[in-house]
UniProtKB/TrEMBL annotation:
The keyword Hydrolase applies. The lineage of its organism: Eukaryota, Fungi, Fungi incertae sedis, Microsporidia, Pseudoloma. GO terms for molecular function: endonuclease activity; hydrolase activity; RNA-directed DNA polymerase activity. It holds the Pfam family RT_RNaseH. This is Putative transposable element. It comes from the Eukaryota. InterPro entries: DNA/RNA_pol_sf, RT_RNaseH. SUPFAM superfamilies: DNA/RNA polymerases. Keywords: Endonuclease, Hydrolase, Nuclease, Nucleotidyltransferase, RNA-directed DNA polymerase, Transferase. Residues 2-45 form the Reverse transcriptase RNase H-like domain.
C-alpha cells in the first residue's frame, strides 16, 4: 500500500483480504501487537475491509495448485 499511497489517499476504497482478522481491525477491543502495527500503518486511509474466502480469492487459488505426478 505504500507504493500506491498517492492514489489510495485520494478517496475511499475497499480492501479485500483473505485474512479474517483484518475485518475486525477497526472494532477490535484488545488487538494483538501485529494488528496494532497494521492499524497504525493504515490509519491515514479511508477504506472498508471485505473478507474473501480462499475458494473465491484468485490470488490464493494460485498458491493452492494441486500437483499431479505423471
Amino acid at each position: 500500500m505504500d507504493y500506491f499511497r498517492y492514489y489510495l489517499t485520494r478517496k475511499e476504497f475497499i480492501l479485500r483480504t483473505g485474512h479474517r482478522a483484518l475485518t475486525s481491525l477497526h472494532t477490535c477491543k484488545n488487538p494483538t501487537s501485529r494488528l496494532l502495527r497494521w492499524a497504525l500503518k493504515l490509519q491515514g486511509f479511508k477504506f472498508k475491509v471485505e473478507y474473501i474466502t480462499g475458494d473465491t480469492n484468485s490470488a490464493d487459488s494460485l498458491s493452492r495448485l494441486v500437483h499431479v505426478n505423471v
